[in-house]
Specification:
elongated; alpha+beta; four-stranded antiparallel beta sheet; Elongation Factor Tu (Ef-tu), domain 3; conserved putative lor/sdh protein from methanococcus maripaludis s2 fold; 4 helices
Length: 421
């Protein structure tokens, strides 16, 4: 068994060595072919530009600097939430008798959501109403008694004034009158107390009817008929999605550029390629010490209720706009030796680094403030791999001299080796 494994290893090593030998010969032949057709200047330093001395030309593409609108964005992400989300709860303890809505139903403010069992409360209301009638009857009786005692007191006073009655009898009549007047006050207070209790029970009875506090849709239903619900136990959740909001975090470097009213373009995965427009409604004036970000709130109108709370959204905030800026493609702008610039092609098909001052930039283009004129062509594809003085040829095969000597500065580039006549 060990001999068989050793034989397999030896065969694999031999195959790898053969493959490497053949590959090296192929690479050597490919490198030699261009050199053979390069002419007398092959392998030497390029002419006036002074290139890297490579024999193969860099293939590049170019584009003209042109006037276009540039819009700069700040991108934030987050989950959408409703304009208002309200948990609808009963205000009294009791058993749920019925629920009038289901998940996803549209409801209006004040619409019936659920009904609590109200039989006990109704009985208490009846008792309070009876107590109120009794209190009122008692109050009327006390008023009759007070009227009678007042009449007696006035009669005794007349007799006393004519010296036909003793003072003691007058004082007794006055005491009875004052007592009856006090009883009237007590009876009236009892009427008010009973009325207040009745009003309280009627409010409790009204609270057995659960209504929606806002317009919206039923986003969640947590209880069913027959369940016992305590006060403030959510029965359903109603969400208002006439407009939706996105709460996001804004980093420090973008804080000064994003203000209330900034235009927002919202994209969600549910509707690929479609953009919903909104605006920044609020920006927090403080930063979170842990995340070093400020809270940002974006409001998005939602006609047709297509956007739903909980959707993941990407938002582009328009922080600046230049309608007629001189621009180049974004891949044309490169950094070299600590400077930012673009590569131009001189008459000798040599790439020359040209320093520029840039402004706004979007996903495709960069604004050029200084260092470039309208219509100048800059290298785009391949610019990242270039160095100042490299010889190049365009993607379509034009340009790019194979000769590299000093005498080749103004000559015409020969056709690539193997080109048809």
């Amino acid at each position: 068994m060990r001999k068989a494994l050793l034989a397999i290893v030896v065969l694999a090593a031999a195959a790898a060595g053969t493959y490497y030998y053949l590959r090296m010969n192929a690479d050597t032949g490919a490198a030699a072919a261009p050199a053979a057709g390069a002419g007398p200047g092959a392998g030497t330093k390029s002419g006036p530009g002074g290139g890297r001395g490579n024999t193969a030309l860099m293939t590049v593409d170019t584009a003209a600097a042109s006037r276009q609108e540039v819009i700069e964005y700040v991108t934030v992400v987050g989950n959408l939430i409703g304009e208002a989300t309200v948990d609808v709860s009963p205000r009294v303890n009791g058993r749920i008798e019925s629920i009038a809505v289901k998940l996803g139903d549209r409801v209006a403010k004040g619409q019936l959501i659920a009904k609590m069992d109200d039989r006990d409360v109704k009985e208490q209301v009846k008792q309070a109403e009876a107590s109120l009638e009794l209190a009122r009857a008692t109050a009327r009786q006390r008023e009759f008694d007070m009227t009678a005692s007042r009449t007696t007191f006035e009669r005794q006073k007349n007799l006393y004034d004519r010296q036909l009655q003793t003072k003691q009898t007058l004082e007794d009549a006055e005491a009875r009158y004052n007592a009856s007047a006090a009883q009237v006050d007590v009876a009236k207070a009892q009427v008010m107390q009973t009325q207040a209790r009745l009003d309280e029970l009627k409010v409790t009875l009204g609270n057995t009817i659960i209504q929606s506090p806002v317009d919206g849709f039923v986003g969640r239903r947590t209880l069913d008929p027959g369940a016992f619900a305590g006060a403030n136990t959510p029965v359903v959740s109603v969400v208002d999605i006439d407009s939706v909001r996105l709460i996001a975090n804004l980093v420090e470097k973008d804080f000064r550029r994003v203000t209330t009213g900034v235009e927002a373009m919202v994209e969600v995965d549910a509707f690929p390629g479609e953009t919903f427009m909104g605006k920044v409604s609020r920006v927090a004036p403080i930063f979170d010490a842990a995340t070093r970000t400020a809270t940002l709130e974006i409001e998005v109108p939602n006609p047709g209720y297509r956007l739903k709370p909980g959707m993941y959204a990407r938002v582009r905030l328009t922080v600046d706009r230049r309608p007629d800026a001189l621009t180049v493609p974004r891949n044309a702008v490169v950094d070299s030796e600590g400077k930012r610039g673009v590569f131009l092609i001189d008459d000798g098909n040599v790439a020359r680094f040209n320093v520029v001052r840039t402004g706004l930039q979007d996903a495709d283009r960069v604004e050029i403030l200084e260092g470039l004129n309208d219509g100048q062509r800059v290298i785009t594809t391949g610019a990242m791999a270039l160095r100042n003085g490299d010889r190049v040829q365009l993607v379509n095969g034009r340009g790019g001299r194979r000769g590299g000597g000093a005498g080749g500065g103004g000559g015409k580039s020969p056709a690539p080796a193997g080109a048809g006549k």
